[in-house]
Design goal:
The chain is mostly helical. The protein contains 11 helices and 2 strands. Strands 1-2 form a two-stranded antiparallel sheet.
């Protein structure tokens, strides 16, 4: 069928795989944004820089200390999440009662500062990061060659996303988190330290961005600009799925990655804009997003 359209099956499935990989990063990053917005009502424009920081922490751990990829998966989210906690305590906590625009401008400025610091220290050229030995090679599926590392990224990202959804939507901790967004005074009356919960939630959302950065490091070169263009697409994903919607971020992230990959096969000229076209259509039809709820 595809050969009749002049499209080799290998090219189609190859682009589908690339779309799934991009979708995995879209889902992880938009999930972190949704968690932060749902709890803090702040549009975190620092997210792209924090994704980049996760990749750099992995690179520094390997090249300066000798700790490899598996250690980086554990350490990078904690380290970058701790910097997120510091940002929330020093700056963001003073903005919760102000207009959303103040939080957006502050996080945008912090993101530019972080990117500039890393660019001054490491330069603009990318740094390579090797794939762990356990995930090198791939599987010949007959119709395509599936690299082991790329399959791992898709599966691991999906597991992390679904685990986050389960914790927030199906556990007592998640119930406290959701209640604190609606009525923090009432939740505090039950003995819950709401300010600490808000701080840790922001740190967790930042940690998800750092985790995505570690996963991306062996695929893309580690560079200070690696999050700049990606975060714009991720914000479009969040808007389409619905601001603050956990499941919306997951489903929309993977789906839009696949749509983007298929567009590169059938209409390459539109591959860079298809997500934004979909965003415009969704906003016209359902301004709250596909999975969002109207205020």
């Amino acid at each position: 069928m595809f050969e009749l359209l002049g499209i080799p099956p290998q090219a189609l499935f190859g682009q589908l795989l690339i779309g799934l990989i991009n979708g995995a990063f879209y889902a992880l990053l938009s999930l972190g944004l949704a968690v932060i917005f749902g709890m803090l009502n702040i549009v975190n424009f620092t997210h792209g820089a924090q994704y980049m920081m996760g990749a750099f922490v992995a690179w520094l751990l390997l090249n300066k200390i000798g700790l490899g990829y598996w250690w980086a998966l554990l350490i990078a989210p904690v380290v970058v999440g701790a910097t997120g906690v510091a940002i929330e305590r020093l700056f963001l906590k003073h903005l919760y009662k102000l207009d959303h625009l103040y939080g957006l401008l502050l996080t945008f400025g912090v993101g530019l500062i972080l990117e500039g610091l890393f660019r001054n220290e490491f330069g603009s050229s990318g740094q390579p990061y090797r794939i762990p030995a356990e995930l090198t090679g791939g599987q010949n599926l007959g119709f395509m060659f599936l690299p082991n590392y790329r399959a791992w990224v898709v599966v691991f990202s999906l597991v992390v996303c679904l685990a986050t959804w389960f914790v927030i939507e199906r556990t007592k901790l998640g119930a406290y988190l959701r209640a604190a967004t609606e009525n923090p005074t009432l939740v505090q009356a039950f003995g819950v330290n709401v300010p600490r919960m808000i701080t840790l939630t922001y740190g967790f959302g930042v940690g998800l961005a750092a985790l995505a950065g570690v996963l991306a490091a062996p695929i893309y070169q580690v560079s200070p600009q690696m999050g700049t263009n990606l975060i714009i697409v991720v914000f479009a994903v969040v808007v389409i799925g619905g601001m603050g919607s956990i499941m919306g971020s997951i489903v929309t992230g993977f789906a839009l990655g696949v749509i983007e990959g298929l567009t590169k096969v059938f209409y390459p000229e539109a591959s860079n804009t298809v997500i934004f076209v979909i965003m415009a259509v969704v906003l016209l039809i359902k301004p709250a997003g596909l999975f969002g709820r109207a205020s």
